[in-house]
TrEMBL record:
Name by which UniProt lists this protein: Phosphomethylpyrimidine synthase
Pathway stated in the Swiss-Prot or TrEMBL entry: Cofactor biosynthesis; thiamine diphosphate biosynthesis
UniProt gene name: thiC
GO CC annotation, single: cytosol
GO biological process, one term: thiamine diphosphate biosynthetic process
Function: Catalyzes the synthesis of the hydroxymethylpyrimidine phosphate (HMP-P) moiety of thiamine from aminoimidazole ribotide (AIR) in a radical S-adenosyl-L-methionine (SAM)-dependent reaction.
Residues binding [4Fe-4S] cluster, per UniProt: 482, 485, 490
Record EC number: 4.1.99.17
Organism name: Bryocella elongata
Family (UniProt): Belongs to the ThiC family.
GO molecular function terms attached to this record: 4 iron, 4 sulfur cluster binding; phosphomethylpyrimidine synthase activity; zinc ion binding
Pfam families from the UniProt entry: ThiC_Rad_SAM
Binding site for Zn(2+): 338, 402
Keyword entries, A-Z: 4Fe-4S, Iron, Iron-sulfur, Lyase, Metal-binding, S-adenosyl-L-methionine, Thiamine biosynthesis, Zinc
Length: 525
């Protein structure tokens, strides 16, 4: 895919709130903010009754609702405002963060090639954008199972996810008090929250066959009222596609896809989400909930990638995208999964072709199936590639994938792997300023500024602890070597002497990076 032309910046649009004014805690530069870090410390969730979670969007939403009451227009979606030519506060906020022009953001949202998932009831949210014209984003999945986890554990996972840089978080809880867990997560989250409403609907009936559209609409209305920002909805799994999976090694690996396939084959009816798509869309427009159209027939092994079933569903998702756009509802498209490297570009090209460039949100993809326990690595390889080719958001995979429910450490490991993948994609796509942090840490490395190296790392704690395993004393934070080479064999130490020769003899100076260093360190102070 071609690079997006860099807009001129957002100086032409005056906006009264700048990034950082929301009241959220500052970070080490790895993500949005620590968000609810004042509620959560390194040992887990701790409630402070004297602390009120910031609500940076509250006044914006109050004003918007008053206008809706006056005009009778209750479509609250960002796409609706964008198509009316309005630059919302969320669009201006995103433009500032992304270093893009606010009009460019508005135009992309109006076209459907970018979304700002921002439910009007999630007032704690710091707005962010998902689209090929913005930085590549990552999502972290949390949530309990019927066998494990609780509210405190999920809030610890949320804190870890936001602290290490997750741009959105999905609550995939399937057990216990699902609404209570979701409410706690939303009220503590500065990032968009997504869910799969089908899970809660299934928890309310005895059998899959008992699912129905009235129950489903009740669930999504309740979740939208709580403030869920995007719903994964598997409306593209159609009964005529079910026989197409018979040749697969791993069949249907999406939980939502498998549940609906079971419902359709048991009831001998078409997917009730597909047949009632317009009714779902009306609810989403009212609360500005974005669609994340689920890939219920995604491949679950590299052997099944790019098969008839996957692309049949993708074509239907494109049709549903255009249907949602008629009601000005934002849409992103979910993608695989498990894909060998030689088929990754094809996945993006097909999605752009069939779904008119709606943002592509992909799980991985894993490029090989042989490494359980290391699937954060097998998938980060594919994630970096698909991000380079044009995926807008990468859903992380943890080391526990295929093995069990991720714990807090698994969440961290998955996020770090995916921050690397997304950042590598941004560099390859020549995003404005994407390489500045790399240049800064390289300069710090070359000049043996160890403290700056640690601060500029994705995971400063780990970088520092690894260095200090062998050279813990403060003296070594100023040493021109590490334990790998020692003072005699350090290449950069010797190279610095060559620099002096080049300057004295040839008048050649190295590039000046002081300002980049200053700017990048300031972001992490």
């Amino acid at each position: 895919m071609d690079d997006v032309t860099d807009p001129q910046g957002c100086a032409a649009y005056t906006f009264s709130i700048t990034v950082g004014d929301s009241g959220y805690m500052s970070t080490n530069g790895n993500g949005h903010s620590n968000g609810n870090g004042n509620h959560l410390n390194g040992n887990g969730h701790k409630h402070d009754n004297n602390y009120v979670v910031p609500q940076p969007r509250r006044d914006w939403i109050v004003k918007r609702k008053e206008e809706a009451a006056r005009t009778g227009d209750w479509n609250m979606s960002q796409m609706h405002f964008a198509r009316k030519g309005q630059i919302t506060e969320e669009m201006a906020y995103v433009a500032h963060k992304e270093k893009l022009d606010a009009e460019f953001i508005r135009a992309e949202i109006a076209k459907g090639t970018m979304i700002i998932p921002a439910n009007i009831n999630h007032v704690e949210l710091e707005p962010m954008a998902i689209g090929v014209g913005s930085l590549c984003k990552i999502n972290a999945n949390i949530g309990n199972s019927a066998l494990s986890s609780n509210v405190d554990e999920e809030l610890r996972k949320l804190h870890t996810a936001v602290h290490y840089g997750a741009d959105t978080v999905m609550d995939l809880s399937t057990g216990g008090d699902i609404p209570m867990i979701r409410e706690a997560i939303i009220r503590h989250s500065p990032v968009p929250i997504g869910t799969v409403p089908l899970y809660e609907a299934l928890s309310r009936v005895k059998r899959v066959e008992d699912l129905n559209i009235d129950l489903y609409l009740e669930v999504i209305e309740e979740q939208a009222q709580q403030g869920v920002d995007y719903f994964t909805i598997h409306a593209g799994v159609l009964i005529q596609y079910v026989p197409m999976v018979s040749k697969r090694i791993t069949g249907i690996v999406s939980r939502g896809g498998a549940i609906l396939a079971q419902w359709m084959t048991s009831n001998h009816k078409q997917n009730f989400l597909y047949e009632n798509f317009d009714r779902i869309t009306k609810i989403m427009a009212k609360y500005d909930v974005s669609y994340s159209l689920g890939d219920g027939l995604r491949p679950g092994s590299v052997a099944d990638a790019s098969d008839e079933a996957q692309f049949a569903e993708l074509k239907t998702l494109g049709e549903l995208t255009r249907q949602a756009w008629k009601d000005d509802v934002q849409v992103m498209i979910e993608g695989p999964g498990h894909v060998p490297m030689d088929k990754i570009k094809e996945q993006v090209d097909k999605e752009v072709e069939l779904c008119d460039g709606a943002p592509f949100y992909v799980l991985g993809p894993l490029v090989t199936d042989i490494a359980p326990g290391y699937d954060h690595i097998t998938s980060a390889i594919g994630a970096a590639m698909i991000g380079w080719h044009g995926a807008a958001m990468l859903c992380y995979v943890t080391p526990k994938e295929h093995l069990g429910l991720p714990n807090e450490k698994d969440v961290k490991d998955g996020i770090i792997a995916y921050k690397i993948a997304a950042h590598a994609a941004d560099i390859a796509r020549h995003r404005p300023g994407a390489r500045d942090r790399d240049d800064a840490i390289s300069h710090a490395r070359y000049t043996f500024d160890w403290d700056a190296q640690f601060a500029l790392s994705l995971d400063p704690e780990t970088a520092k602890s690894m260095h200090d395993e062998t050279l813990p004393d403060d003296y070594y934070k100023e040493a021109a070597f590490c334990s790998m080479c020692g003072p005699k064999f350090c290449s950069m130490n010797w190279s610095s002497k060559v620099d002096k020769y080049n300057e004295e003899v040839h008048g050649l100076k190295k590039p000046e990076l002081t300002q980049i260093m200053t700017d990048q360190m300031a972001l992490r102070s």
